Amino acid sequence: MRKNIWIPVVLILSLFLFSTSCRQAIYSKKITNSTSCLLEIVYKRGQVFYATDPDTDLVDLYVFTSAGQPIYDQSGNTVSSTLLKTGQLVNVSYDGYILETYPRQLSGISAITIEGCKSNRVDFLITQISGMFPSTKPADNNNWDIIFKGDDFLKDNEKRIMEYILKENWIGSQVTVIPQEESIAGKGQISVNISNLTDNSADLEIIVDAGIEGSAPLIRDLHATLTDGTWHAR
After folding, report:
1. Cα–Cα distance between 110 and 98 in angstroms, integer?
2. What is the spatial distance between Cα 86 and Cα 229, in angstroms, rounded to a whole number?
3. Alpha helices in 61-155 (DSSP H)
């Protein structure tokens, strides 16, 4: 009889231990890595942002999306993603992993915080050059050299990043940035001449030559000014 008495006791203890282990599994926390990265936004396409490390001259390009992410201003207030713009410095919190693609992708983004503002030089020049064409991409030639002359409006790494973004925008086109060199025959040529460059103004002459016999180059002269961290043309 004593053996039979212990059977339900053992069963009850087993059920208690099983239920306890289940509760521990449900409420246990998984510890993950967390870090942050200070980046400068150089180009924006909808809710996708291209950015660089503002402290180096490396041609490292990062890409991240603001979709579904909490975004904070410099005071720590939650703001809309529409306030994110090119030229801003942002602190991106992520899980510590970076996908080794190009552009590089931050994994597990949990927050984006606006830290300050520089200027939108890459985005500004892309906008001015693209505005020289009647559609979203050149129609006359799929091979283009971009030649910079005069004052240094962009750093070398920014020129390479602009080259990459234009290749993405002009699907099927080959774009090469050639500072201070002559274009190769058979290619279209975009010449960007910067003069009278100061901290908040510059004069630009943009010449678009499709490289097709009988077609005249397009020329645009503009004066650019920097206002509240954003370059504007007039």
Report:
1. 14
2. 9
3. 121-130
Return d(Cα 72, Cα 158) in angstroms, integer: 27
pLDDT at 164: 93
Q: DSSP for 6-35, please give it.
A: HHHHHHHHHHHHHHHHHHHHHH-------E
Closest Cα to residue 194, out of 182, 183, 210, 206? 206
Rounded to whole angstroms, the Cα distance separating 134 from 214 reads 19
DSSP state of 78: B
Distance in angstroms (rounded) separating the CA atoms of residues 216 and 198: 32
Amino acid at 130: S
Using alpha carbons, select from 201, 116, 129 the residue that is nearest to residue 163.
129
Residue with tokens 């899980």: 95
Q: What pLDDT score was predicted for residue 212? A: 81
The series of mean pLDDT values per 10 residues for the chain, 234 residues long, is 48 42 36 78 93 88 92 93 92 91 91 92 94 82 92 92 93 87 80 96 95 86 92 91
Q: Which ranges in the chain belong to alpha helices (H)? A: 2-27, 121-130, 156-169
CA atoms within 13 A on the CB side of 168: 13
SS3 category, 200? coil
**Predicted TM-score (pTM) of this structure:** 0.79
Distances (CA, A) of 39 to 113, 128, 182, 197, 221: 10, 24, 34, 25, 32
